[in-house]
Amino acid sequence: MSLIEMRVPPVGESINEVTLSRWLKPEGAIVKLDEPICEFESDKATLEFPAEAAGKLTYVAKEGDDLAIGALVATIDTSFVSEAAPVIAAPKQSTEPATVVEKMVPEAPYAAGHPSPAASKILEEKGIPAQSLQGTGKDGRITKADAIQAEPVKKSEQPKVEKITALANFSRTEERKKMTRMRRTIAKRLVSAKNETAMLTTFNEVDLTAIMQIRDKYQDKFVAKFGIKLGFMSIFAKACAKVLMEMPEINARIEGEDLILPNYADISFAISTPAGLVVPPIKNIESLSFADIEIALKDLAQKARNGSLTLDEMSGGTFTITNGGVFGSLLSTPIINEPQSAILGMHSIKNRPVAIDGKVEIRPMMYLAMSYDHRVIDGSSSVTFLVKVKDLLEDPMLLFMGL
Which residue in 55, 168, 290, 349 is deepest, having the highest Cβ count within 10 Å? Predict the structure, then answer.
């Protein structure tokens, strides 16, 4: 027997531990070289762990285990050959037919109702839960053919879900649930930001009439040319990037006793996912077009929600924008994304009466909130930054013309 030990590989400079979030292959399965066998959840992203050899998989760690870098995860017995592996011709002196070798190859064991790797991928793409199918393969295994023929269940045809019994009056029951690694990391970072920075928040409001008029007038042409809509986020990002280039102290960060002032604007965008909030950056926003930003944002959002963001895509950033308005937030005080020194919070757009040239008009208004580290940024600078951003948003032609 030849055993290959599968250990947690280094996944990032500052990452010392990961969580085994789920196994992708059942124990005892015959795996191929480089075939993903499990997923690790790090502080920043979810990573697939590929097999380092072909053979029979044996678990060592369990789902939910926290594992240090270098910890043993599983073993692979290379004396077992995958079904998919080509049959090696027998030596000339042997008269044993190749078919005998094939019969001796053990079949990958799958529990009843468990899909094969190919079937699993097809079902995932269709959004069909494996437990809703009856497999036709050996021991009830769901085959690729079963997955191809499977159709998503219509809402009206969904199987009846057994109703959860309502809790009795004055119930005192509790549920204990382990926090995911990402949620634990988020908690630590937020507490650190509150405790380690001198955080303050300044507020303003912006009239979005001009931006809405531009979007209404040019949206169809923008979509026809670039294949994506012109959203608010790219306009806000360009406005922030322009002012960041004029006010480098807002873009700065503390390293030891030094102040680092980047001459570029790598803006991080807060994206909500089922696992928690992630803030991947888009680099050099000051040099990108509105279409470039919208396309990059769409790509990041898709990757964030399906868990395929890489560590490199999650790293960096000099300033952050978060949009609580998509969830209905009217006003909030965002928390700084360390080691950055400032974060801009966008909020819901509400039609409100405002005074325009001595007259009351109904305008689409949004509250802006910028939290900043007072160790790096003076109060006057924070207010000036927000006013400059407001001016660009209320007269966006200055932004489009580069004035």
Answer: 55
The residues that are catalytic are 374, 378
What confidence tens digit (pLDDT) does each residue in 28-49 have?
889 888 889 998 887 767 788 8
Higher pLDDT residue, 377 or 179?
377
Per residue, the 3-state secondary structure of 271-338, as one string, reads EEECCEEECCEECCHHHCCHHHHHHHHHHHHHHHHHCCCCHHHHCCCCEEEEEHHHHCCCCCCCCCCC
Residue-range domain boundaries for the chain: 3-157, 183-400
Of the options 3.40.50.40, 3.30.450.40, 2.40.50.100, 3.30.420.40, the CATH number for the domain spanning 3-157: 2.40.50.100
Q: What is the DSSP letter of 248?
A: G
The highest-level CATH class for domain 183-400 is alpha beta
Residue-wise pLDDT tens digits, 15-28: 788 888 889 999 88
The pLDDT assigned to 295 comes to 95
Distances in Å between the Cα of 129 and the Cα atoms of 76, 113, 160, 402 are 28, 11, 15, 51
